Amino acid sequence: MPAFRQSPICKSSLFLIILIGAIGSAILSFAASKPAMPAINKPVMFNTPEADRILAALQVFPPDNPWNEDISKLPVLKNSGEIIAGIGADKTLAYNLDMAFILVPGNQKKVDLKINMYPDESDKGPFPIPDNAPVEGWPLDGKTLEAAQKAQDDSDRHIIVVDPVNRKLYELWQGRKADTGWECSCSAIFDLASNKLRPDGWTSSDAAGLPIFPAVIRFDEVEKGMVEHAMRFTVKNSRRAYAYPATHFASKKTDPNLPRMGERFRLRADFDISKFSPHVQAILKGLKKYGMFVADNGGDWRISVAPDQRIRGLDELRKLKGSDFEVVATTGPKEGPRK
User: Fold this and answer.
1) Judging by beta carbons within 10 Å of its beta carbon (0-12, 13-18, 19+), is residue 90 exposed, middle or buried?
2) CA distance 144 to 74
3) Is the pTM above the cut of 0.85?
4) CA 281 to CA 322: how far, in whole Å?
5) Among 35, 235, 298, 336, which residue's Cβ finds the most Cβ atoms within 10 Å?
6) Which residue has the higher pLDDT, 28 or 78?
7) CA 301 → CA 89, 95, 210, distances in Å?
């Protein structure tokens, strides 16, 4: 009997099967590293030990999502220096203690929502907004929660609601609790189990069309020792363009040395973080590995942090300058199994 010979087709098929198996095993291994999701019987505020346990078990987007992508080895964008200079190479990094959020049970009652400004670019809901949903700026604004929810002002007033059981994210821009119920200027729903983006050209609760919650620096992760996702920051001047995974621009300016919405920056690999305190080191490690996205127009070099008083040492971030960062040439939607 002649010896069996494997054809080239069989070899390539076998290689493909092995490769797919390896990718699948890596993803399963990543998911298996998460603890079991605790029971959630009522809304849980962001700055509590109970929230820490829930967040430790929550997989925010699939492992191959851009928010979870290691960009430490990506090439530098050819005009990185010019973009950095345009924002301000000598300007210091700043932070906003702005993005509070609340975790809700999977059966949280959903309410109707009035959308005032961008109904054609909003997800209609209904939304599982609890009565105690925090508003951007609270609790550090000194107001009662009820007063913060009802305040009449033109600030961004982001409201972020996370359903960890169903892995859904609900975000509002200029959210307010009126006498007739909840209303906002724009609403967005994100599936945290999917890589699906907003429709092309749509905004969200952020100008870039990106979600906010996945970018927020939280106590549970700085306490663990590393922020393991991309972060978000704002710039005063952006370009009339956007880069994956952003879906929307917010500028009339066309200067190619202005950053696009979704432009991705990282802390230089040679930046010495050894003398920073533990919580700040956790942030800087994340900025080296995952970087930060241009997400909105605002103050230059301002990153978002949960207003959690347990996070320590944040003023040390002012020791960093724009020149400590570089702009990377990011991957696109066709690079990786992103569906």
Assistant:
1) exposed
2) 46
3) yes
4) 17
5) 235
6) 78
7) 10, 8, 18
